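Hi R.,

Here's the input for the nicotinamide-adenine-dinucleotide complex you asked about:
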Amino acid sequence: MITLAQIGCGYWGPNLLRNFTALPGAHVKYVVEASEDRRRYVRENYPRTKPTADLAAVLADPAVQAVLVATPARTHFDLALRALQAGKHTFVEKPLAMSVAEVDALAAEATRRGLTLMAGHTFLYNPAVLALKALVDSGELGRIYYLYTQRLNLGVVRSDVNALWNLAPHDVSICNFLLGTAPLAVTAHGTAYLQPGIEDVVFANLEYPGQIHASIHVSWLDPNKTRKVTLVGSRKMVVYDDVADDKLTVYDKGIDSVPPAPVAGPLPFDQPGAHRLVYRSGEIHLPKIPATEPLAEEARDFLAAIAERRPPRADAASARPVVATLQAATLSLKENSRRVPLAEIVPAPAA
Ligand SMILES: NC(=O)c1ccc[n+]([C@@H]2O[C@H](COP(=O)([O-])OP(=O)(O)OC[C@H]3O[C@@H](n4cnc5c(N)ncnc54)[C@H](O)[C@@H]3O)[C@@H](O)[C@H]2O)c1
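And here is the predicted structure with nicotinamide-adenine-dinucleotide in place:
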């Protein structure tokens, strides 16, 4: 049995609490909440969990082995550091922190104390994303040309972070996971329509190695709830629509560059034999996606990583390039959409 404490139970926290409470072998002993209203929610719905506002007392309880941080993004670093310093394995909602320096400080603390540190990158546990990753890795899609993601909605408007830090951690983690690497450079455009200095709409372009281009569009100001990834390969194209019944649609579509048909005899000098572009439009395939809840898988991985003393899938090493990309995009937004190489944010280690 592992005993946990959760910090924060606002909009998203109840999902964590429900999933961890449902896991055999886990007991959420406390929820630390600043709001009396949210403490009442816990009291009324989780009789085996004690709501409290006293974080110091919870961190001082030796029975608590692990802490879940589900508070606003800017509080993550301080709370996670306190939890690690108190000797607790720590799960932090996305983004893990607000800078690479903060991520490194948390990772160093966790490593020094032999503790598990995990980021809440839910989509790394999403069965549709895993199926898409398997398609990319199998080579079935051919060479990956580009992908674009759309995470749009009317609200929920935040005031602590912009739409980039609120929504794009998901998209960056998905792109990095699918492509197996981090971007080389980022360019971002964004506008603050509702609150000064807090962009509600952001378009970010990520350049990956091999001329793979990813475009991320996040917004709190959109008429429709859209959660989509479109990935275009040289052989097939895929749309992952998280709000549709059929999550993945694989299109056997493409445009092939075909060499000219061989001509009998010597090639005439005035016809250098140009390649032709041939359109291909074949079957549409809807792979069956298992109906597992990503958060349940995520919760299981956190507990298994602790028990097996191995890194979880969403470990600090995978969260670091996500934060670096968001930092680069933030710099680009600030500097009139300048192209920001990731090396500016994460200098290459000295040779
Ligand atoms: N994985 C996902 O899909 C997903 C979805 C939504 C939000 N999130 C993440 O979850 C986190 C929380 O987001 P939210 O939408 O629930 O925010 P929220 O503002 O609705 O809730 C935060 C809660 O934390 C409490 N809180 C804040 N500081 C505290 C402190 N120091 N001690 C105790 N309680 C404190 C607040 O009272 C509030 O109830 C954010 O990091 C967000 O990025 C993740």
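One thing worth noting: Residues 7-13, 32-35, 38, 55, 70-73, 75, 93-94, 120, 122 surround nicotinamide-adenine-dinucleotide (CB under 6 Å).

Cheers,
M.
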